[in-house]
Structure formats: C-alpha cells, structure tokens
Amino acid sequence: MASRRDFLKQGAGLCALGALGAQIAAAASSTTEMSPPPDLFDAQLLDLDFWVKPRTLSVVRPASGERAKVLYWKDGEVIDSAYQELCHLLRDVNGRETAPIDPKLLEMLWGTQAFIARYGLTQPLEILSGYRTEASNKRLIEEGVPAARKSLHMLGKAADIRVAALNEEVLGGLIRSFRQGGVGYYYRSGPKGGWIHADTGLQRTWKG
Questions:
Q1: Residues 6+ apart with CB under 8 A from 98
Q2: What's the predicted TM-score (pTM) here?
Q3: How crowded is residue 120: how many other Cβ atoms within 10 Å of its Cβ?
Q4: Ranges of each domain in the chain
Q5: pLDDT in tens, 156-200
Q6: Which CATH number fits domain 4-207: 3.40.50.720, 3.60.20.30, 3.30.1380.10, 3.30.70.20?
C-alpha cells in the first residue's frame, strides 16, 4: 500500500489545471476546443489544500448495476477496508474475479471526479471496465472489442470510464493533463456516447 508521502507526491503531480477549469465548466453543455494543459509540475499552480482533503470516490458499474460512494483516503492514509471495496467495485464483472487495483489509478479517478466537482459536475464516474482476467481480455479481442493483448487492465492498472456530462475530448483532455499514464479516446455514437481509457502505464495517447 502506498505511504502518505507517496500519495501526497502523486497528488501534487495531479493538481493544478486552472486554465482547464473554465473549459470543463463550458464543456458540461457543449463541445469545446481545448488548449494545451498547463505544466502540472509548475509550483505556482499547485493547490495543496485541495489534495490533503479526505478523498471519496463515487462510482457506478453499469454492467452490474452497482453504485457506491467510498471514502478511501483520510488524514494522509488509505483506509484498507475502503480500498478493498474499491477493488471489488473495479473487479472483472464477467470473469467474477477481483484483483488489487493500482492506488495510482484510484488517485487518477478521484482527481478527475474531484476536479470537475469544483465546477458543479457531481455525477458519479461510470466504470465500464476495470480489472480483467486474461480470459476476459482474450474473449474481448475475439469479439472484436478494442483490447490490447497485453492490456494493463489485466494488471489492475487501467479503467474505461465515462462521465455523463462530459464528451470524450474534454474528459480525455483532463485525464491527459495529469500526465500520469496512457489515455485512449473511444468515440461512439448513440445516447451514451464513447468512453476514455485511463491507465498508469507509460504516457501516451491514442484513438480507437
């Protein structure tokens, strides 16, 4: 489990996004072009008070119908029972298996939710896919669903997510500005639209 210093360091690396904030607010009702995100390691942009507050994740799993609001970090420490609950919520629903989720991924998800909440967007994160067993990942590939053969989902280091009020460009741009891993944009038509893949691997972006 990550230490308090680890989580504060990750939080400092995830913060700042001031210039992006106005675009997040505007994007709640319309598509907008996004300027490059600010340098997250610019000390003048850090908002440390924001990152030492208790951390709660509100998520929904459409595949299972589950909803939860979990306080998992408080007073500089991860709450183990809450961490285990989040691992269960991000489990392989189809394969019916649970695995440890990378704490950095939880930080990325929380950072996304907490940042947009500052602009009045309080919808839960839709977790379309979290951990995947090797068998589940292979089945997706065989069915033609976008999935890498060495997917980080199988290591508990990736999640496919959606926020009802944000389009893919805005949500992906926010996560990409964290500079904590890979971001994939999956555009789909229809009432629910596409989704964003977020992981804690190498920094890279792609569209699928």
A1: 87, 88, 91, 92, 131
A2: 0.79
A3: 10
A4: 4-207
A5: 999 999 998 889 999 999 999 888 999 999 998 766 679 999 999
A6: 3.30.1380.10
